[in-house]
Amino acid sequence: MLKLDRKLEKLETSVRHMGKQVIEQHKNCERLFEQPDRSLARQVRHNDEIINNYETNINEQAIADIVLLRPIATDLRRVIVAIKIASDLERIGDYAKSMAKFVSKNLDNPATMKILKEASFIQHRLVIMLEDIMEAYKTKDVTKAYEIPTQDKELEALLQDFRKIVIKNNVADLEDAFNLSSLYRTIGRSSDHAVNICEHIVYLCKGIQYDFDKED
Amino acid sequence: MEEIKFDVKNLNLFYGDFQALKNLNIEIKANRVTALIGPSGCGKSTFLRTLNRMNDLVDGVKTNGEIRMDGKNILSDKVNTIELRTKVGMVFQKPNPFPMSIYDNIAYGPRCQGIKDKKVLDELVESSLKAAALWDDVKDRLNKNAMGMSGGQQQRLCIARAIAMKPEVILMDEPTSALDPIATQKIEELIDVLKKEYTILIVTHSMQQASRVSDDTAFFLLGEIVEFDTTLNIFSNPKNKKTEEYITGRFG
Q1: Three-point CA angle B239, B240, B241, nearest 5°
Q2: How many domains would you assign to chain B?
Q3: In this predicted model, what pLDDT tens digit does every residue of B138-148 receive, in sequence order?
Q4: Which of A65, A70, A72, A209 to mutate to test the interface with B (most CBs of B within 10 A)?
Q5: Fewer CB under 10 Å: which end of chain B, C or N?
Q6: Substitution target from B208, B219, B236, B243 for chain A, most A beta carbons within 10 A
Q7: What is the CATH number of the domain that holds B182?
Q8: Whole-prediction pTM
């Protein structure tokens, strides 16, 4: 095995570990939606630092690989894509942190927590989607990378329905409704970044820049 | 549309029974740098030498097919190879200045062509050395022996010597493999400037060099052209697995 192959394998392993951490964060958010828990919420907020460190470390590895080993063709794409996926994962991690913050703030607000619980299945969909994506990255499965973004569309539709329910049923006061709405947006934004990762996987496998947004 | 300098069709070349080039088809564009890459013995230098009929000098060489330079088949028996080689100059792997003064190195070719006028020769020497980015280094010692120059300067002198013949094409066979990184960089910069006026083909074993200096790249393997495309495409997303293996150092 070439030194370059070993280094790129190591770099991609770091990205996969980072992905695992991010997924764990979102799984914990799902748990928080189901069952509010002050200490778990604190832990999720705290763990965001670990994810940020992963990104820094991946960028450093990538720069060293470029400078010392001068990758080209597929090798270069592997490095570029590692940087890009790490960047999207970092953002997706940030959203887990804001979800945990939201839960911490609203622990004593039963009306909000009730709606949150009803929304936990949407968060579950996000977790599944992230798991599928990291699996597609691991196996460099371009077919899967093309398919996964339909999950984002379904998730977006579910979020739309939920926003309407919150507003129409007047289940919460205006401020709560507003806060809940922005919380749903964090789920939606996480899913958007997940779609970006699918684009990176397509680029990795095929060398073409693909934009899923332009499909609509 | 870009002008085609060489249009190669079904080119085959044999050294005795050994077929060194197999049915090559390639269009080399004018005023671009084309890199020829591939493992040793793949035919890239042989191909380079067909473009100014240098292979004629090797015993037992047989060539068939067509190489059209500006539309005219240069493989035809009627072609004056001396004339062809003034149009298609060459720079070799090891700098090979003549054992004479810097001035005489440049003036040698033009003198052979019958140019005697001192003023014309002076101007030609100056403009050629300037074009090869060597003038400032040597203008005060034009009468010194060229063998006393550094390797990098000698190689630029060889480029200047080729330029003095007012060629249309410059062939370079691993022109920097004997040079240090600074001299290499100077030659690479020079290639970039020269392509405005000349069509340049360069054989190189350095992938970095191919990607830095060339506009198009042809990958040769066992006497065939496996892939020919823009250098950007070859080095970012090659179509052929063999090309990718070679340029990334996983070949064989």
Answers
A1: 120
A2: 1
A3: 999 999 999 99
A4: A72
A5: N
A6: B236
A7: 3.40.50.300
A8: 0.83
